[in-house]
Amino acid sequence: MANVVKLAKGNAGAAQGNSGAGVQKGGGDNTMTVTLPLLKGTVGPNVADVRALYKNHGVFTYDPGFMSTAACQSGITYIDGDKGELLYRGYPIEQLAEKSTYLEVCYLLLFGELPNRSQLEEFENIVMDHTMVHEQVATFYHGFRPDAHPMSILCGVTGALASFYHDSLDIHNPRHREVTAYRLIAKMPTLVAMAYKYSVGQPFMYPDNNLSYAGNFLRMMFAVPTKDYEVNPVVEQAMDRIFTLHADHEQNASTSTVRLAGSSGANPFACVAAGVATLWGPLHGGANEAVLKMLQEIGHERNVPAFVEKAKDKLSDVKLMGFGHRVYKNFDPRAKIMRDACHSVLKDLGVNDPALGVALKLEEAALNDPYFIERKLYPNVDFYSGIILRAIGIPTPMFTCLFALARTVGWIGHWMEMIGEPDQKIGRPRQLYTGPTRRDVVPLGKR
Ligand code: ACO
What we know:
Elements: E1 2-8, E2 31-39, E3 47-48, H1 53-57, E4 77-80, E5 85-88, E6 91-92, H2 93-99, H3 102-111, H4 117-129, H5 137-142, H6 150-160, H7 174-200, H8 213-222, H9 233-245, H10 253-263, H11 268-279, H12 287-298, H13 304-312, H14 333-349, H15 354-367, H16 370-374, H17 381-392, H18 399-419
Antiparallel strand pairs: 1-2, 2-3, 4-5, 5-6
Bound molecules: acetyl coenzyme *A.
């Protein structure tokens, strides 16, 4: 099958607003017609194959922000942004959140199928066997200021793990890749909890492998060596569900970063550290922290209309954090589940959080406002996750760390998928150059 695509040869629109130096604007024949092969996925829009475009026609494509560009093939996660659908290996997120645990979902994302009972047991045992970190890892923590943001600590210690596992860093060995996946999934909760313990000056808690993945994490966060700690099953289930909802989200900024870093052959711990760094941004994983700050700034339901007006004002620099998504132009399906979980957790724990009242008022105001309706801006998963995390007792600066913990399986799953491809290549985007053309250096005394 083939398709005819018209491409702009100069740059009549794309670089407007830049200095424009060196950019041809308009004039002459500014279009070209090429025939491109179309690739078909199992579902979703067809993809024009531009791989031979430069070789055959001498032009690049221009797509900052990857608005229309598929950077890879993947069989892991599918999103239909118009329908508000999210599938992990074909399974709807709603069903997985209700019927499966996070570790079942990890197995699914890594190996392609849901495990049977014995496969799951084996997988859980392997993961839980890897939860400890080398004692020397603690010394890294002591090098950070106690008031360091936990995400800065997490970036550092995740990358540092590579220095402990020389035995399994051959990225071309499938067994090494698998062991690394177990290690990362298992150790991330330990590293995240240690970042929290360090920030509050409490001793690190060793993992307890008799607990569930989420239960063990909660204990490492909130237990102290001097007292018994019992995991609250409501909180444990909510935590597990939050992990499931954040486990993967196809080619988002952090996952694409992990893939790009990995494409050079970098070790997987370094690649995941790059993912953590990318996730930290307020437009990505940092949004749940930003939502809570915003709700606190708004303070009361009566202040919501004025805040919404500010968010619509292009001169104000204010955005409704937790609203909008590059792909979802209908409701974010994760947000729906999170919204329900939010209500039941707050009810079960008897928490009466004014932030939830402000959030619901804000949601109602925005969903009925033409500005948000026309732009298809709906609450995303981060809009509600911050409120649940706060009710559970997770401090706001830790929110993004929990997201990183949950997304680690997605990052490592995509990394494994990419490295396993037979024709895997280093990622190397091209550019539309707008700088000066060639010129000669004038000697310093003559400038
Ligand atoms: N509040 C107010 N206006 C918004 C918002 C918002 N949250 N989001 C988008 N808009 C407006 C833009 O100003 C733009 O308006 P215009 O057409 O008049 O210029 C229009 O909606 C389109 O927005 P873009 O920024 O072009 O959309 P893009 O796909 O590039 O960005 C993003 C998506 C980054 C998520 C954006 O909606 C945003 O910044 N949201 C708030 C941060 C957030 O919640 N991030 C979490 C994302 S989900 C995740 O990482 C788990």
